[in-house]
Amino acid sequence: MKKIPLFLPFLFLTALSSAAKPPAVLPPLTGFTAADMPGDAGGAALLRWDSPGSAAAGAVIEVYVSDPAKPAWVKLADFKAEAKSESDFNRPFWAWSPAAGRNAVRLDTSAVFGRLDKPQELDFKLRMVRGAASAETEPVRTVIKGNWFNAARLNNFLLMLAITIGFFWTVSHARRKGLFIRRIAGLDAIDEAIGRATEMGRPIFYSTGIGQMSLVPTIASTSILGEVARKVAQYDTQLKVPHFDPIVMTVCKEVVKQSYLEMERPDSYRDDINFFVSNDQFSYAASVDGMIHREKPAACFFIGHFMAESLLLAEVGATTGAIQIAGTEQESQLPFFFTSCDYTLIGEELYAAGAYLSKEPMLLSTLKVQDFGKAFVMVSVVAGSILLAAGAWFGWQPLIKVVEQLFKAY
Amino acid sequence: MEFLANIWQWFAGLFTVTPGWMIFGGWMAAGLTLCIYSFLYKDNPFFKVAEHLYLGAGMGWVFQVTFFQTWKPRVWDALMDGQFVVLIPTVLGLSLMTQFFPRISWISRYGFTFIMGYGAGLVIPLEITTNFLRQIGGTIAPFAGGAGFWAMVNGAIIAFGFICVLFYFFFSVEQKGVVKKASNIGIYFLMLYFGAAFGNTVMGRFSLLYGRFDDLYKYSGSGYFYATHVVLGLLVAYFVLDKLVLSKKNGGQEPAH
What we know:
The complex is a heterodimer. By secondary structure, chain A is α/β, with parallel strands linked by helices. Chain A has twelve helices and 14 strands. In chain A, helix 5 links the parallel strand 9 and strand 10. In chain A, helix 4 crosses helix 5 (216-235) and helix 5 (216-235) runs parallel beside helix 10. Chain B has a domain at 145-241. In chain B, 16% of the residues are buried.
């Protein structure tokens, strides 16, 4: 066997390492611009520069910011020099046109300057570093401010417009021709529950959950409460509505009072039908559990936004033998209502309840709009899946990008 | 002033964590846990005490959180900094208090109107983002091919289930024919999800139960003077006494409250 001289591998490795080494001098950073980040709430800047290319391999770009009023450069961010291509920028095609060979980065200045409520003039500069070598740009001054319109959310805005137009069209359609609504068992049972309570002479408990007034299920719940209160007023049954949120309570007071007035029973209305219990989730649950256990209502309604207290409430109601109707949009709580309640409204059924019970054309048309929305989602899923699969099969990357960006939330 | 400062210092010193306070805390924790659990047998005065204590403590906690995390930094500190614009939401918020005075309660409608309008404005774009864009984007994402063939098959099953579930929630279309069949398949998908969610949440609840049992075990030690055993013994003694003596007086009926 031939002996290989020891110095040969050493020479080979040395040659290899010197061949892989990038040039010692860094290329200059050119075409640097700084501007306000379009479509944001303020506090962010958009920096763009020419891509330094492979000559800057292994280098790091550091971004510095300074307030002209108190000049002092502060490092805001750093990243690899070959990263941040404009084509990878997180903006949709209708709000961003990437240029070839350009880099861009969105930089939030709140870490240095806190939340900026007013337009702020700031200086920016870039510094590229690799070992001892470095290259720096001239500082560029810009004013960053909040914007009224975010073009990246144009898809969201157009959808909202389409829904609004669809709503007005269906309202006029519903008034002229009326709309069909399929049967919802949980809502048909409301009459049964109130009738049972009337016969037994026991109260009805109605909980709107622990949601705030801005939540859609809470709004839906107040609408159902109005219908329940109308029937309660008609049959002169006792209604109790314990509350978690004082604002929801005040709204519900008005709703119940209006229902009693509409049924011409203002004499039966009492201010303590709605009462505040607690703003703490489990204190509320413990207290309502105690009331249900002691007063043994004939019917319990748990309709609105519920979290971990759902089973605590429904389980105690079930042990008292009350007929229970529940409804929530919280899918994690629905199984508990299924196991402990007689009827459960699943998500969308809850939103349909107000329209279903009142049969008002305005509310019925909202159901129709919701159905249009669902049809739109179904068609979009089918069409989007086919287009994406075709793009993946034939390797059409631009098609994939366009479809993905159309259905992306920014 | 010095006298008041001394009193405050003495009062604050009472709440310095000492071994005695730790034992007291252990008794409170074990006692209140068992009082709440006693509801599993039946309603009783111990549960009522714990219930009302919980209610009061909960409200006290919420009050201090609102006071120190909302009112002080958002209203008081802002006003002290000269940001008088915070007076607008503050006045709108205070207008809700007029509900207590029937003659001027109409003022509260301004506050409520703002809350409702603000809530709707906040929710509508968010709902479109969540229920439309993210839902569609998430469902079709596996078809882009980046994750491989089996991810696409998985995605196809999910997309099929998703469309069938949507059929179930069509309210303005009569459920018959193809719609009925798709809707029935959708119910199976829903039940699969609910079963999984139920199991997952029950496991979470069990972990909470283990935590309470772990604490009860800890407080049953000699370091806490057998707090768990003593409280449990007292509760059992009460229920036995209640069964033998008190219930007979009420004719075996649980008192109405």
